[in-house]
């Protein structure tokens, strides 16, 4: 087993142990993505003529660019909602006893492990014309005719925020747990108010967690095919459905490949912006 | 050369994998895959056709994979040599395409017991028609007190935010669009007037369903009150007490036959034939004609009765006289362009 | 005076934070409760509150052979994908966890990348590759695809468990003459086992729930449960799906409770 007999360091294992997974990833992860890239550089479905036609088509087409733009915007909205709602949960978590802490964690964790179709399905029930929100508002006499909530941007953002909330909250809880509690007290005793302390001390110190949470939430939100399709309905088109339609219904694989690559790059760009921010904030925190 | 290397790689991968995963056997033949339509079709086929087929064929394994005709064609086209579907169901437009692209086998007419009993229109050698479909207006009688009488009623201001339509991937959507074009001076070759009309319809649109089955869902959830719709699609819902009614518009409801085909290179050819035979039997067609399914039969041994005779037609002759049959050959010429245009323009 | 303003100010802060937190927690938990309640409806639509209560949709579930078929497939694929993920992932985690070399860090990023990259793009890519080499869609292709997106969870949890291991423990074992294999089996493995189990559990759940990869790598003969549920919801809003959802929610709650006992799942995910 041991692949590095020369090494007397018993606490580490040879890199050879990573070889099977590395090979597996090379064959079934890297190779498919390269093949995807290769196909996207062809102008015809059969993959015989090289060219940038697919990319030109996408990047010069206002419709496609609109789909990309609205997808990226949607991700930002969902991430913002998750942050605003998720942060107080993480904050509360630090102030309650261990029993309540476990309960909070389990509440946060549960949706992460519940089927995404089930969670989305719940939102159809809640947002529908005869759903809970409309029924409540009508019985309270606030509205006469039911509001349209399903198949709207609002509905999609709310549903996605709930579905992705754990991805935001868990890193936040971790980050807040690492902040020295005395720091908080010190700031308060120095005369800074609670709000001030929060924005000047707690928030900056928890930035690594915020950034980790934002990255995960954002990446998950814009690829949430099921939620986008069921709560968004037939009129709102986002990148995942666009990709799926082109690939599956229209069998336009080179264009679908180009959409995938553009989508991948867009996500990578957003993630690296987040990562850079993270590095900067850590540098800042250390200073 | 390339083929050789490729097949070698495949064999190596497959063999290696089978060693690694004895539980994932490839030896086991896959079940018969029947691509039906979504919604009420799937329910009707699941409840009536599949049990009849399984009873006659020693509980043969079968899976329903409901999807639109265009998707069926795309899936089979992607893997012609090893199609993922054995039996396809097509409305007239896609049927022409499937036959044109050589995706289906001729129906073994000489072997068939029931083929000769079908009415003349249903006797298609490339795949017989087990039923007719009729498209008119569907509406919620609790919300819409005076029944609509014309396609033009969808544009009435009172239906602001209450109208549902489907996209053009379905026969329902495309057929309806063509009728709207005709209403506004267009034709099967010119649907520009219809697209202009769609623009005017936007304030009324509550939802654009991905398929006709989803329209029924929208009624069930109260998301829409009126829509173009299939006569059969709403019947199961209606039987369950969901308030929804069908009416033929004065311009004439659209009728078309739906054909069923054996996919070329299907590994389950024999079972596919058996399934289609089951769909043609008078027993299955009679059951499907009765509530709650109300599917128009094509076997001449089945006499039209009940709700179908009352609302639609007493027999095929009347059906042909009363309803609009569209020229799908013409429609097919431009359909993909329309789909593209629709998807771009109808974003609300 | 200023002291009172301070407390008032502190109070307002705590109040706002607590209220938002409680609202957020309700938003998180409410949908699951709603689904469970609706699944007991006696009606045909998803009205809330239901017009009456019955177990009819659970009875209906008993006869839903297509859902059974899809659930069986999903379980088989999740089982194999998890097994493969554990074998490959734990080995890789051992290799990269204590190594500071560049290659270890690169491999770590590679193994984690399926978590952030759009899985839908990977699903399409995998389908293209498999069809290029002529491998038809099958349980095998599904297992491969799922393993790629599930293995990060195993790697991450195992690496985290290894990081908490005292190096001195291993050193003393070696000093006492134990072989590496013996040390691994008798000391390392028992200590990191909860981490592996937690990772395997999350991998299993995410495979069972996977949509983006299955979307491309499945067909009717290898139907997968989440896809089947999605299609049923989109096509006919079947209330049976509500009953199935009820079953899945209860099963998830039970599994999470067991995992919390066995592995302290909640602590693992916040450390």
Automatic annotation (TrEMBL), chain A:
Q: State the membrane topology.
A: Multi-pass membrane protein
Q: Where does the record say this protein resides?
A: Cell membrane
Q: Which keywords describe this protein according to UniProt?
A: Cell membrane, Membrane, Transmembrane, Transmembrane helix, Transport
TM spans (from-to): 17-41, 62-91, 103-128, 149-177, 225-243, 255-277
Q: What is the protein's major site of localization? A: membrane
Q: Which InterPro entries match?
A: MetI-like (IPR000515), MetI-like_sf (IPR035906)
- Domain ABC transmembrane type-1 per the UniProt entry, residue ranges: 68-274
- Tell me its family: Belongs to the binding-protein-dependent transport system permease family. CysTW subfamily.
- Name of this protein: ABC transporter permease
Its lineage reads:
Bacteria, Pseudomonadati, Pseudomonadota, Alphaproteobacteria, Hyphomicrobiales
TrEMBL record, chain B:
| Lineage, uppermost ranks | Bacteria, Pseudomonadati, Pseudomonadota, Alphaproteobacteria, Hyphomicrobiales
Keyword Signal annotated: yes
InterPro entries hit by this protein:
Sperm_putr-bd (IPR001188), TAT_signal (IPR006311)
Keywords, in A-Z order: Signal
- Superkingdom is Bacteria
Extract the CDD domains matched here. PBP2_polyamine_RpCGA009
The name this protein carries in UniProt is: ABC transporter substrate-binding protein
Matching entries from PANTHER family are given as: ABC TRANSPORTER SUBSTRATE-BINDING PROTEIN, THIAMINE-BINDING PERIPLASMIC PROTEIN-RELATED
- Signal peptide range: 1-27
TrEMBL record, chain C:
Gene3D superfamilies (alphabetical): MetI-like
The transmembrane residues are 12-40, 75-97, 109-130, 136-155, 187-208, 239-259
Q: Which residues form a coiled coil?
A: none
Q: Which residues form the ABC transmembrane type-1 domain?
A: 71-259
Concerning PROSITE patterns, the annotation shows: ABC_TM1
Localization annotation: Cell inner membrane; Cell membrane
Enumerate the UniProt keywords alphabetically. Answer: Cell inner membrane, Cell membrane, Membrane, Transmembrane, Transmembrane helix, Transport
Source superkingdom: Bacteria
Record Pfam families: BPD_transp_1
Q: How does it sit in the membrane?
A: Multi-pass membrane protein
The record ties this protein, via InterPro entries, to: MetI-like, MetI-like_sf
Family named by the database record: Belongs to the binding-protein-dependent transport system permease family.
What is the designated name of this protein?
Answer: ABC transporter permease
